[in-house]
């Protein structure tokens, strides 16, 4: 069953839930695909756009990056709990649990944060030149944001305040 499920897929992100299920952001089919820990199909959830990436919000919710929004989705029902508008295509997304904010890469805007308590959007790092293929991804560890740019073959480390720490060039 899972072979056919992924045949036309464009998986852009994945996260493992606390119950061991694996969720995949399938951009081409506009779905979140959920597999059990043994690889069997659990369910799929239809979404309105994207998803370009996915992050865990809680045991029962995930957030996806979409065309012009971050959408928080309840996993059991598939309902969109909240849709937070962004000023561009939200490509990569990460929930910073300890800081209570979502960090995302928004095309033409840069790396931005969205505060959970009031949905305030702030730019951490302004966009540099845009990638033609759209291959810009972020990862977050403690106080650092790592930006990967496939076309430039670079990884840049920034602090949560946007200060550049280092650049790795391959």
Write the layout of secondary structure elements.
Blueprint: H1 2-5, E1 11-16, E2 22-26, E3 31-35, E4 41-46, E5 53-56, E6 61-65, E7 69-74, E8 80-85, E9 90-96, E10 101-106, E11 110-115, E12 121-126, E13 136-141, E14 144-149, E15 154-159, E16 164-169
Antiparallel strand pairs: 1-2, 2-3, 3-4, 5-6, 6-7, 7-8, 9-10, 10-11, 11-12, 13-14, 14-15, 15-16
Task: Give a verbal description of the structure.
The protein is mainly β and 170 residues long. The protein has one domain (2-131): Methylamine Dehydrogenase, Chain H. Helix content is 2%, strand content 54%. The protein is built from one helix and 16 strands. It has one helix at residues 2-5; strands at residues 11-16, 22-26, 31-35, 41-46, 53-56, 61-65, 69-74, 80-85, 90-96, 101-106, 110-115, 121-126, 136-141, 144-149, 154-159, 164-169. The strands form four sheets. It has a four-stranded antiparallel sheet, with no helix packed on it. The protein has a four-stranded antiparallel sheet with strand order 5-6-7-8, with no helix packed on it. A hairpin with a 2-residue loop joins strand 13 and strand 14. The protein is globular. The model has no long low-confidence stretch (mean pLDDT 90).
As a percent range, the share of strand residues is: over 45%
CATH names the topology as Methylamine Dehydrogenase, Chain H
Distance between the termini: 39 Å
How would you write the strand order of the largest sheet? 1-2-3-4
- Annotated CATH homologous superfamily: YVTN repeat-like/Quinoprotein amine dehydrogenase
Total number of distinct structural domains: 1
As a whole number of angstroms, the C-alpha radius of gyration is 16 Å
Helix segment tally: 1
